[in-house]
Amino acid sequence: MLLPVSGESICTSCIVQVSSGCCEQYEAKIHLLSDQEWKEELKNLTRLLHRAEEPSGEEEDAWGRDDAVEEAVWKLQLFYGNGAEGKNYEELLRAKPKGKIPTSRVITLKAEEAGELSVKLDPYIRTQRRGWDGESAETHIWPLIKLVEVTLPKSELIPEGVVLVDIPGTGDFNSKRDEMWKKTIDKCSVIWVISDIERVSGGRAHEDLLNESIKACQRGFCRDVALVVTKTDKLHLLEYLRERKVGNQAIQSQREAVLERNTVIKLQRNKMLKEKLKSKLPADLKILEASELVYTVSAQEYWQQGLLAEEETEIPKLREYIRRRLLDKKRRMVTTYVTEAFGLLLLTDSFNCAENLQNEYSHVSVLRRFVEEKIQLLERSIDQCFAHIERPLQEGVRDARTAYRRLLGACLVRSKGNQGFHQTLKAVCLKNGIYASRTLARIDLNEAITQPIYDRIDPVFGGIFSRSGKPTDGLALMPHIDAFKHSLQEKMTEIGIRNGWKYDSYKRSFLIQEISAILGGLEGHILRKRRRIYESLTTSVQSDLKPCYEEAAQITGKKACERMKDVIRRGVDRQVAEGMFERAQQRMQHQFQQLKNGITEKVKGSIATMLTLASSQGDGLYKELADVKSEYKEMEKLHRSLREVAENAVLRRGMQDFLLRMSPSKAPPPSRFNS
């Protein structure tokens, strides 16, 4: 009812975010490329189209069939009009665009109803096709659009706090849009790869998207990946019965055939996806325990229910999934807020306490010495944790040196020779080894030749940043930080009992709560650094190969495609001989070292501040603080109830795991969460 759909091809042309809020109307904000960002794209588009010499023979035929050049021509014609593709960069800078561009580079649309907003929004986000006769102002600025944010009035369909993001294709030729594409994927906590029933059965596009999603699990915030198969009601019964290869039971109706095919696809694709995930991710990741990785959906039947019941369309199942994820996130968020607020109230009340022990500073001094010792131990634990990546890195570098020519050759060879590849290769070189299209599979030469290294490090890398595991395992980072937290909290309790902190229990409780808040905040910092570490291999290789890409991009004229390939091959050979893969290995190890330093510096600084506050005397400013005993009691009650909820959830999951182990033939009953 809101975004465009098509039964034939990809229809959204840019990233579209949909959420609900407190607004009274349906609203869309269309963000455009800045003037500088458009100039960068314009320069690349004109360089892509420029030919110093006329190609001939096979390459002449290739110009009309090259996807990269087709897209470049179409963008320029839409924005500047027919004939724009024949002008150079300077001429186009002076040309007047056909559409009106707002100075704010943001277009805001509003409507009372979803259908009304959909009509207004459609020309901005629907992929524009060659031969289309539309001449609207919206169409003319379509090449400038980089992001659309849609906000609905408060709705049960999309609960507040949930953001659904439609991410078309596998990237974009424009650097800014391509970077936004990657960052948006990495920010998603769940990724659903959407593919209709016919493409899943016969194409490979969804597999490319699944591979990108698995990479997002390694470098971003994603914790869950699923394949959502759509339009499952589309089935020609006679053809299906003729080609049917499963089951002995006779099919009596269209409905039975649809349900049987859905079951078969679920089994096949679930197995394929689970194997793919197991080969790339650590064995203890929760996603590998998921019973459902594939959903078979029919939106048409959800509304009409002529063939399938509502539950059989699996849309209610997806909605329930979103609701559970949202409740879990809100529970964790509220727990964090309550913990921090509780700690501040504890500190405030301790300053108002009439009892102040004379030896308070000695207690804090003991704690400071203990913290210093534990931080040194934490540093050694992190070193041991990160050391697990060294051997896979070395083995990966060895594999890459052996396989890079074969992998590079596979990227540079096409089944039809150079037909339709000449300008695509030029686009790859213009973007330093990467060509991202909204309609074609992503080409990344840097990633292709470093893939043997990733194949070696992926399970270990995922294990290092896994939330599960034990400190004794040595691999996962977070359990070491948790062990550090518990040791500090136990020491504070021990000192309090031994030295009579019973008169200042508020302050002791403050210290314990603040330790939780400080170290809990580290997880977000680690996840943000994780992406830079993971991508450091390809970033390093791309940097080393940049001169050869730039040289290849300048080549024009006869046999330009073969000459570009030759320059790339020789450039890669030269860099490999000079230690390109070894430098990439060193840069990744340096990124790990920087993460360790960042963790210890943050811990030292935050705990030092906390101890300084805790050792302050209850005079001066603190005598003016309000009495917060009632607020303290209320927050203590909330904190206790949240802790009990968390403990009950752990017990419930433990019991389900136990029952599953004891009864391997039976799946556990579905969990029920109360809002």
Automatic annotation (TrEMBL):
UniProt protein name: Nuclear GTPase SLIP-GC isoform X3
